[in-house]
Specification:
The complex is a heterodimer.
Chain A (H helix, E strand, L loop, with lengths): L1 H11 L3 H30 L11 H13 L2 H33 L1 H15 L7 H8 L3 H25 L3 H9 L4 H37 L6 H10 L3 H26 L9 H6 L1
Helix pairs in contact in A: 3-11, 4-5, 4-7, 4-9, 4-10, 6-7, 7-9, 8-9, 9-10, 9-11, 10-11
Chain B lengths: L1 E9 L5 E10 L4 E6 L5 H9 L6 E6 L2 E2 L7 E4 L11 H5 L8 H14 L15 H13 L5 E5 L7 H18 L2 E5 L3 H7 L2 E6 L4 E7 L11 H17 L9 H8 L5
Parallel strand pairs in B: 3-8, 3-9, 6-7, 7-8
Antiparallel strand pairs in B: 1-2, 1-4, 4-5, 9-10
Classes of the chains: A mainly alpha, B alpha/beta.
Chain lengths: 277, 263
């Protein structure tokens, strides 16, 4: 209670300085990369370094714009995004179902969880040769690899979240005589949602990681192909441009998930500023 | 009428938590249950609520055997147990989901008004103080208009001032619909402020040791001599329930010093 009171006291005395701090915090984080980029640009321009292997920001930007103007960038981004979307969808559906069943029934968990945990211990890239044999060298093997990467964090997240649902709140549902469906919809789903969103986000992160692995190992299009192409033709600016595209895509899709679920998680909000402080 | 018929509860590991408890509770009666820790007070309440089943005997409300949670029986726990993802108003209306929207809104508004939290209707439970949260839990239980309301040490986590406040508030709310209350507590003052009857339980296995009728008019003055007398009777019964040897002439002093120790 005292902590609560103290927090609301600081809330009340949150004047302009606090608002300034909220803007200044991200700006502070940008300071290092921006200064480093500017410094490198200056060093290359003034001839102290050639910038052939480590291209300066302006060259990367030009490469990015050229690729975009030629429509190359869009084509590769689209292909890669489609692969991630397909693999993510399959991984999420499978991970959610398996996690829900394993979280709900301890018999199923004892039966399947040890095997799944053992499979999880295998570095996923090790599956690639087998997937290529099974699903061919085109989309099948790539999407499967991504789906496997997405599956495990979602599976673990859902299973853990269901097992951690507060028994006391389940009892409230029983007191009000909720049906099984009502219990799932009104108690279990909302209780599980915060952890589920976190597992979706980490699954998506792994999805982007694995699409690179899949495309590096043999693709004729996609951002991963741009990476390999840049390496083979000695175009470091193209490699960095592709990396930047990955960063933008990863951050954007992560933001979409976070923002999409935010309205349902507003009840949690208050914890965020306390954690950051 | 609520009738407990030879209730016994034996856990699978052989522990006997309750044995042969038989009580009849009149509609509108307030029964306070006190007893040392581990004497099965909560187990008894959970059996009445239908959350757990007794291994012997039966709980009968009117003509229904209670084997699972029943619409006429509400329960308030030691913690408020509000659903953190629902606003205060939605928490209060949780048990009314099958009612038409207008009726639900009207009953929730009335219940919130009754516990004095109308202005908190749209806030999240985490923004409430402990006392406010427990008042919301009371509103949530009462809005379903139960015939029997069970309370499992509902005020024990609150500070003394808030506790006294909520005891009076509970009596005030009880007067609206006069449900049967079964109130488990380890606070003897609370038992006497609320109860028409105080049930003293003894442990291992949990049984009813004594029943003490409290015939004081309400509202009860916590400072009065009659209140003090009732309190001494309950404390003495508690001492006896724990098989403490007390001779008649020094019972008073023993009981007073034991007052802080019995639980």
């Amino acid at each position: 209670m005292t902590i609560e009171a103290r927090r609301s006291a600081t809330d009340a005395s949150r004047p302009a300085s606090e608002r300034y701090a909220r803007l200044a915090r991200p700006a502070l984080g940008l300071l290092l990369p921006v200064v480093a980029a500017l410094a490198w640009e200056l060093i290359v321009r003034s001839g102290y370094a050639s910038g052939r292997l480590v291209p300066p920001p302006s060259v990367i930007f030009n490469t990015f714009v050229e690729l975009a103007r030629a429509g190359e960038l869009q084509r590769h981004v689209l292909v890669t995004t489609e692969r991630v979307a397909a693999g993510f969808a399959i991984g999420v559906v499978a991970g959610t179902l398996a996690g829900a069943i394993a979280g709900y029934s301890s018999l199923t968990r004892r039966l399947f969880d040890p095997t799944l945990q053992a499979l999880r211990a295998i570095p996923s890239i090790a599956w690639v040769p087998l997937f290529v044999l099974w699903f061919g060298i085109f989309e099948g093997s790539k999407i499967t690899l991504i789906a496997v990467g997405v599956f495990f964090p979602v599976y673990l997240g859902v299973m853990g979240a269901i097992r951690n649902v507060d028994r006391k709140l389940v009892e409230v549902g029983r007191v009000f005589r909720l049906s099984d469906a009502g219990m799932v919809r009104r108690i279990l789903l909302p209780a599980v949602l915060p952890d589920y969103v976190i597992s979706l986000r980490s699954g998506l992160g792994l999805g982007w990681m694995f699409v690179v692995a899949a495309e590096l190992l043999g693709a004729s299009e996609g951002l991963g192909y741009l990476l390999i192409d840049g390496q083979q033709l000695g175009k470091p600016a193209q490699i960095v441009a592709a990396i930047v595209a990955f960063a933008i895509l990863g951050k954007t899709t992560d933001w979409i998930i976070a923002a999409g679920f935010a309205p349902f998680l507003r009840w949690q909000d208050a914890f965020a500023p306390a954690n950051e402080a | 009428m609520l009738a407990l018929k030879h209730i016994g509860k034996t856990y699978p590991n052989g522990t006997r938590a309750l044995d042969g408890i038989s009580i009849d509770v009149e509609p509108g009666e307030i029964v306070a249950v006190v007893g040392g820790s581990g004497c099965g007070k909560s187990t008894l309440l959970r059996a009445i609520s239908g959350l757990d089943r007794p291994t012997q005997g039966a709980v009968v409300l009117d003509d229904d055997m209670i084997t699972e949670p029943h619409e006429k029986i509400g329960i308030i726990f030691q913690e408020p147990r509000l659903l953190p993802w629902l606003s205060v108003a939605d928490n209060v209306g949780f048990g009314l989901a099958d009612r038409p929207r207008s009726e639900r809104q009207q009953r929730v508004a009335a219940a919130l008004d009754r516990v004095g939290l109308t202005e908190k209707a749209r806030v999240w439970p985490r923004e409430l103080s402990g006392g406010q949260a427990q008042r919301v839990a009371i509103a949530r239980a009462l809005v379903a208009r139960p015939e029997v309301l069970l309370l499992d040490e509902p005020f024990s986590a609150l500070d003394a001032f808030t506790r006294v406040d909520l005891q009076d508030h509970l009596l005030d709310l009880w007067a609206d619909q006069k449900p049967t209350l079964i109130h488990v507590t380890h606070d003897v003052d609370e038992a006497i402020v609320l109860g028409d009857r105080v049930l003293v339980m003894r442990p291992r296995p949990g049984r009813v040791a004594e029943q003490i009728a409290i015939d004081l008019p309400r509202p009860r003055d916590r400072q009065s001599a009659a209140f003090d007398f009732a309190k001494r009777r309950v404390l003495a019964a508690l001492d006896r329930s724990l098989d403490r040897a007390i001779s008649v002439d020094d019972r008073e002093t023993k009981s007073d010093s034991g007052a802080a120790m019995w639980w």
